[in-house]
Amino acid sequence: MNILVAMNAFKGTLSSVDVNEIVKNHFESLNHEVLSIPISDGGDGFLDAISKGLEGNFVEVEVFDPLNRTIKEKIFMIKDKAYIELAKVSGLNLLSKEEQNPLNTSTYGLGIMIKQAIYIGAKHIYIGAGGSATHDCGIGMLQALGVRFYHHGKLIDEKLCGKHLSLITSFDLSHLEDLIEYIDFEVITDVKNTLLGDQGAAHIYAKQKGASKEDITFLEKATKHFADIVEEYKNENFRDNDGSGAAGGIGFGFLSFLDATLHSGIEFMIDLLHIEEAIKKVDLIIVGEGKLDQQTIYGKAPYGIAKIAKKHQKKVIGIFGIKDDLKDNDFLDETYVIVPKYASNDLSMNHPKQALLNMLKKVFTS
Fold this sequence. Notes:
Elements: E1 2-5, H1 16-29, E2 33-36, H2 46-53, E3 57-64, E4 70-78, E5 81-85, H3 87-90, H4 108-119, E6 124-128, H5 139-144, E7 148-151, E8 154-155, E9 170-172, H6 174-180, E10 184-189, H7 201-205, H8 213-234, H9 246-258, E11 261-264, H10 265-272, H11 275-280, E12 284-292, H12 301-311, E13 315-323, E14 334-337, H13 345-350, H14 352-363
Parallel strand pairs: 1-2, 1-12, 5-6, 6-10, 10-11, 12-13, 13-14
Antiparallel strand pairs: 3-4, 4-5, 7-8, 7-9
Helix pairs in contact: 1-14
């Protein structure tokens, strides 16, 4: 049997490359022909998926993490195209639990990384915008790219983060415009949330980044204030665009200041890595990621790939770490969940490779 393994990361435990390799090796041991394509929908593993699927080279740069500590990270370059994973520079995974607080975290380091990409010749910049630790609407990033933000005429000269959104009363774009005049920006995200409201960035995502109820109330108000300032200057509404709430409102920052295009993460990857062509050539497709829940059918990688597979009447198996309630699961022919049937939650978190192998060996024997 010819099998396509196209799995996303098991967030917090196994990268997409690791997951795909484990599943591929198991099915090859059963004498199947296996094609492995690691997948990301814009979050963790974005660069892994790009670099495994396309020819290019990594360039190491010195940047800043969400608390503006110096780190070294990589940009993936293909000629004049730069691919950047937000999670590697402004990601929640870079902070301890005690450090997580979207009032204090910044995308300044992401801006430095973008500037470095421009300096080494990038004309087209692709940002995988998932897994952020921030809610600053991109003001940290924009500051690093040359935007000057003011509070009643006085320059705010410290590195900007979420708590500064409420202070901004004006800004100067002259330095930014010179830098990005010939640069195209494309943002890859699995998030369709708009900027404000019950389904906006603060109310849906800030809690998981360390925000209290009071912090969420503050961030919602501060974000609205900032959006009002920006949209009055631009004379255009950006807050209601799908994806404007992505990564703590960085979607809004990209749309309103950098004239970016926002893409559905999995649709972008399906096209870039020619996944539909691979699907046509196999008998079985295996998809999956760390968690199967209602969010899966709103643009997550397993659903996006399964939808294409069903168009071509292919069988689809889903493998997940854990499962929540899901009203509609008709996009998968078979579903296997590791916890609790094949491994405890502790084993799955502490020894994820063993937990995944336990399930594979018990379920797939021929």
